[in-house]
Write a structure and sequence with these properties.
Layout: E1 8-11, H1 20-30, E2 33-40, E3 46-52, E4 62-69, H2 73-96, E5 106-116, E6 120-130, E7 135-145, E8 150-152, H3 154-157, H4 161-185, H5 191-209, E9 219-221, E10 227-231, E11 244-248, H6 250-253, H7 276-284, E12 298-304, H8 311-320, E13 326-329, H9 331-336, H10 338-346, E14 350-353, H11 366-384, H12 400-406, E15 410-411, H13 425-432, E16 439-444, H14 448-463, E17 467-469, H15 471-474, E18 485-486
Bound molecules: nickel (II) ion (NI).
Nickel (II) ion binds next to loops.
Length: about 500
């Protein structure tokens, strides 16, 4: 194991305010630590973290950013600058924030590795930024040509400009259709309201979809070459329309891709059926199980709060030991870790719902509960092509309202190794190994120590004769009821 974590604590002292009331704040602020750490994502890519304040210590203003570090200096320089710019944005927002403001600032950045070949490396970066009440999310795609040591912006992938212009025209039509659909969903608009709104939107739509690298700063593609392009809130329409995402099948755009980069988008000329991806994943999901938990001792290990940076590493471990598990994922994380989630699903693991962004559902209104659950269901089914069958509310916390609106069975656990609290792989492994027959074990794939504990957990539980299975395998043959709570098989 060459995984080393560096922890540097640097006290922030650079708050430049003048009046005496603010002076107190300086003292308070100066006790907030800027924490830096590094950990491995793959053999050649590390995750660097910068953190100021945290949820657990209830700091009012919080900043967390994760960014990649590779074996290529030109990439690291760009990523470092990008992260530092976000940090500066946070620090100046802290300096400008009014003391009487109740809600604090919450800035977060994380990334997903979307491409890694000897020729190109690509990252999708997501920022969740809150200046108090609402979170705005923003995506950025950073692709690098390793041989030429340069960043590939959208215009380089769709060169010459003539091709980029053609693509932009296509995209504009897709965005238009998406906006029109959203407008039709808005209530209380007469048709004349709509036509006025529509007329007023044209300029912003033209500007926001024009063929520039600034407009096309966020995009991903899947294994079949389906290209998704993301537009920020306010970019192509007013804030009411939120973020806009459009999709292009390879048939629509492949003739516009710069020859040299055709490979990048996984464009296979002979492939005709583009809907194949989800069909295929549907059939790879096991519906009949080799293990019969009514006859042999089973344990279901569950991983909450991902997908995250370490999920791929965990999937490698599970694959190596031929073990299936259940992932209770957050909708907002699934959305930016599509490939990881799809991989987990295709490799036979079960995907459950753990809410959109880990709110305590007990404190939410009926409508908010519905949003947390259904938005996440939609993201999961969009990625895997299958409906999720189980819900685990964050913190295992729920009330009657949640039960009524879950429309899914609620799956808790009967063993909590406290892996979120004690970040010690050996300790966590020993606790998880205490699992009982037909039990459900809680764990979190967001923690390095948990992922590191898993090989030992598997060895110990297998030595006891346990079969490690998914939740649906554990309960196979028993009918799970929506809104009912389960913490083990009976
Ligand atoms: Ni959780």
């Amino acid at each position: 194991m060459k995984q080393i974590v560096y922890l540097l604590l640097i006290t922030l002292v650079s708050f430049g305010c003048k009046d005496s009331k603010k002076q107190e704040d300086i003292q308070k602020s100066s006790t907030i630590k800027l924490e830096k750490s590094v950990e491995d994502l793959t053999d050649s890519i590390q995750v660097k973290n910068i953190q100021i304040g945290s949820e657990t210590t209830a700091d009012k203003n919080r900043f967390h950013t994760s960014y990649p570090s590779t074996m290529y200096e030109f990439i690291n320089k760009h990523q470092e600058e990008f992260a530092q710019a976000y940090l500066q944005e946070f620090q100046s927002a802290v300096n400008n924030s009014r003391e009487e403001a109740v809600a604090g600032l919450d800035f977060g950045q994380h990334f997903e590795l979307i491409e890694s070949t000897p020729a190109t490396i690509g990252f999708l970066i997501e920022r969740y930024t809150s200046y108090g009440n609402n979170y705005d999310s923003q995506f950025f795609t950073h692709i690098y040509d390793i041989k030429e040591e340069k960043r590939l912006q959208f215009s380089a992938l769709f060169a010459p400009q003539e091709n980029f212009d053609k693509l932009a025209a296509l995209v504009k039509e897709k965005v238009k259709a998406a906006l029109q659909e959203k407008m039709n969903e808005m209530e209380g608009l007469t048709s004349s309201d709509k036509s006025t709104l529509w007329k007023n939107m044209q300029e912003q739509l033209d500007e926001g979809t024009m063929a520039t690298d600034k407009n096309y700063h966020a995009f991903t593609w899947d294994e079949s070459g389906n290209l998704s392009i993301y537009f920020d809130k306010y970019q192509v329409a007013s804030g009411d329309y939120g973020n806009i995402e459009i999709k292009l099948t390879p048939e629509l755009y492949k003739h516009l891709v710069t020859k040299k980069y055709q490979q990048l988008f996984h464009i296979q000329p002979e492939k005709v059926d583009t809907s194949g991806a989800s069909d295929e994943s549907l059939t790879t999901s096991p519906k009949t199980f080799e293990v019969d938990c009514s006859k042999v001792p089973c344990v279901a290990i569950t991983f909450d709060d991902g997908p995250a940076a370490r999920t791929s590493q965990l999937l490698d471990i599970l694959k190596q030991h031929e073990v299936k598990a259940t992932f209770f994922v957050l909708g907002k994380s699934a959305k930016v870790q599509k490939n990881t989630l799809l991989r987990a699903y295709k490799e036979g693991h079960q995907i459950g719902n753990h809410s959109w962004d880990h709110k305590d559902l007990k404190n939410l209104s009926e409508e908010e509960i519905g949003n947390q659950i259904f938005k996440t269901n939609d993201v999961i089914s969009e990625i895997t092509g299958a409906q999720t069958q189980v819900l685990r509310p964050p913190y295992g916390s729920f009330n009657q309202l949640v039960k009524n609106h879950a429309k899914l069975p609620i799956i808790l656990w009967n063993l909590d190794p406290l892996d979120w609290k004690d970040r010690n792989a050996e300790l966590v492994a020993n606790r998880m190994a205490e699992a009982q027959v037909n039990g459900i074990v809680l764990a979190h794939d967001i923690h390095k120590s948990t992922v590191e504990a898993i090989p030992e957990v598997i060895a110990k539980l297998k030595a006891k004769g346990y079969h490690l299975v998914t939740i649906d395998n554990l309960f196979a043959g028993q009918e799970l009821e929506d809104g009912k709570v389960y913490s083990r098989r009976h």
